From TrEMBL:
Organism: Tilletiopsis washingtonensis
GO MF, any single term: lipid binding
Coiled-coil annotated residue ranges, if any: none
Domain START residue range list: 76-258
Any one GO cellular component localisation term in the record: cytoplasm
PROSITE patterns the record matches: START (PS50848)
Xref: InterPro entries: START-like_dom_sf, START_lipid-bd_dom, START_lipid_transfer
Protein name: START domain-containing protein
Amino acid sequence: MSAFASICSRLVAAASGSGSSTSGATTQHYISEDKAEEAYIDGDLEPPKELHLPLRPAEHGYHPNPYTRDAQLGFELLDDALGPHQPWEDHGVTSDGVHVRMVPAPQPLLPLMYGKTYVPNVSAIQVLACIHVASFRLIWDSRIGSAGIIQRFSHYWHHFYIVWRGIMHIYAPRDAIGVQATRSYGPDGQLQYRPTADSQVIDICWTNVDANIAPQEDKVRAHIILGSYRIEQAGDGCNVTFIGQASLAEKGPAYIVRRIATEQCETIGRLRTAVEHFGVPPYILDEREILVMQLQQFLAETRKTTLRAHVSQPGSFTLVLDKKRMYPSGVTISLVEGEGASSLSLRENADRLELSVDAAGVGKEFCIEFEPRDKEPEPSAGTGWW
């Protein structure tokens, strides 16, 4: 039995009330509300914690990561799905140029989903930025209603909360708690410590973790088996493959489940369109780990970006700009503030901002906002192809 089949059979059994579900190092017990209340009274379980999405998810430095085994399982599932033994059903190529395949699964599971397309004129790390920056991802991933970071473990690894949209009164919104992780390979095929400008293959994955945080009001708690993208440099662009599967926790109308699965595969076609219309959001190259990132926010209507970070050591880092598409006339710095702002020096150079922080800024926070120099009038509420 494959890794996917093993996990899926346990989730189906759990949803039908016949047991518990085990996912790698994390064991999730599915029990009724009455039984849960008895367990809390008897002291067998801790009451669920409140959800807290902080403005500074790594306020005192990156947190120790308790979910490395969960992330490793996610990568193993991705490798398994892309192997030769999955019984894919071919659903053809969509009008957006996405090749869709699926492996059927019994409800409340979504099918194992596969979507692949080619995004021209981008590097692997640029595609990673389009996926990693949540406020940019909301432009092209139409299933996501909102998302936030609970804790940061490094620049690209974090503990997150996510909400998927409902469909009128027919299908309730789903929420989930998980971990985001990345792995990357350089030109020599060797595993890298972190994604870099010369990465040739980058994997980014999300998988469920048991954080004992209750579902939020009017939401049904879903279980992310795997949500992942493999980004492979191919000529002047990248092949991007989506692999995903989740348990929706409750059964729904079959046509709704089919629609959700198809839309999720097709989102990478919207990713390609977003790159063509907007370009790539700004991203940071920080080889020496000068920064502890807190927040990056991108506003599609104005192309304004806000970065909040604090300084772990003196040195230099780079903020890369897409001047071919997003910022053809460069950018204007509209705000620099925070205790660490006075220790920051900045210079615009070709397709990037070069930033340096001196020793006086160590341990202090700064916030930078910048917007396109060719700023357009504020759009109306209905503006936007998305």
